[in-house]
Amino acid sequence: MRRGGGRIVNPAPAGRAPVILLIGTVDTKSEEIAFLRGSVEHCGGTALVMDVGVLGRGSFTPDILNSEVAAAAGVSLRQVMDSGDENTSMKLMARGASLLATQWQIEGRFDGVLILGGTMGTDLALDVANALPLGCPKFVLSTIAYSPLIPPERIPADLIMQLWAGGLYGLNRLCKSALGQAAGAVVGACRARPVEVDQRPVVGMTSLGSSALTYMKRLKPELEARGYELAVFHTTGMGGRAFEDLARRGYFACVMDFSLQEVVNHLADSCVSAGRDRLLGAGSAGIPQIVAPGATDMVDFAAWTCCPDGYADRPVHEHNRLLASVCAKHDLRRSVARTIGERLALASGPACLLLPNRGIEEWDRPGEAMHDPEGLAAFMDEVGTAVSASTSVRHVEAHINDEAFVRAALEVFDAWVREGLVVPGVLDAVPVEATA
Predict the structure, then answer these.
(1) Is residue 197 predicted with pLDDT exceeding 80?
(2) What is the percent of the chain where pLDDT is above 90?
């Protein structure tokens, strides 16, 4: 794939029935999986059944035997069965299933995946779903859907999950309803995926909505006029995770990572986190990255809960009934500056850090709730020593939402295009068309 070309998933050719990879324990759920296979076919798809059970044989022969799954993990089925406990056994099968699914997805052997199970099956399902790229339809039918038992960091950004009501043991009308809906959802998702005929390189951008950070409104037409497609990610946890996943897989020609408050949230143990790998994906893939510390002055929290411990005396901005933000303490802002410097130093591609000296989000302007010039000064002071020589640093005498910041970003971008660091845009690209 040409870097930045946006070709991660390969939709089924027009006219071909979508192939759905069904994963489950055929030894204990033969009846349910057989019904699910029939439901997929009824919805116009073709089912490919993978057995991840280890207790014995089911009532029908799956397309991928459990012995093949074990072999993909580098062990025999007997070794899996003799591994000592069910947790170890299922982790081995999860490894094998993930490796097989990843390879087959690359080869185009299936179009979407549907996995069913209780806690054991869901544990395996999350590994498989995380191994597949964003855009490949992933559906998990689980008896613990959206349960607090599932750590947020294990949920893929584009996962579809449904409660398997009444599905713990045997078929019944509730179970059949859930199975049928799941089959229809994954087949429909595969049919609705676009044919990726747009040849424009993709620029990945981050932003916190369109009120706290507004640069994307000016940058979008500018980048499109240069022959690029812009994809903007909402940095409220899952958006940052999707952004990092695509960057790591080489989806973008360049990134403009201008909203980094998920880094702050992770350091402050906020629930609104994209995980520990934020600001590492593009660098690990060698993708050119223009970075700015947008919204790094805030710690997010669920608005329907209490303000985080130790922040009761700090200013709060209530964005809506779901999301609120509290002004970060100065020691945290210094820690964020060091983290940004450390992560950019690991980049294998070009990195430029833009520092808007007059503010980093709309609510930190004079008179607004988050206005904290001392905090901004603390960040700028720390970042001056935290950034390594491998990272280009450019101060911008403007607020991040000002026109001058947009111009500074475009100057770096255009220079990299001229130098051959960013692939050139395509001005005569064919628009994306849907398959259905």
Answers:
(1) no
(2) 79
Most confident of 12-16, 367-371, 374-378: 374-378
Asked if pLDDT for residue 320 goes beyond 50, the answer is yes
The domain defined by 202-300+328-418 carries CATH number 3.40.50.12030: yes
| Residue 168 and residue 141 in contact, taking contact as beta carbons nearer than 8 Å | no
In percent, the amount of the chain with pLDDT more than 70 equals: 94
Query: In CATH, what class is 19-192?
Result: alpha beta
Q: What is the pLDDT of residues 92-116, one digit of tens each?
A: 999 999 999 999 999 999 999 999 9
329 contact partners, CB below 8 Å, separation of at least 6: 310, 311, 314, 375
More confident residue, 306 or 206: 206
pTM of the model: 0.84
**Per-residue burial over 208-235, b = 16 or more CB atoms within 10 Å of its CB, e = otherwise:** bbeebbbbbebbbebbbebbbbbbbbbb
What are the φ/ψ torsions at residue 5 (nearest 5 degrees)? -80, -10
- CATH 3.40.50.12020, the chain: domain bounds: 19-192
Hey, how many other C-beta atoms are within 10 angstroms of the C-beta on 299? 25
Q: What is the pLDDT of residue 11?
A: 58
Phi, psi angles (nearest 5°) of residue 349: -120, 180
Domain with CATH 3.40.50.12030 in the chain: 202-300+328-418
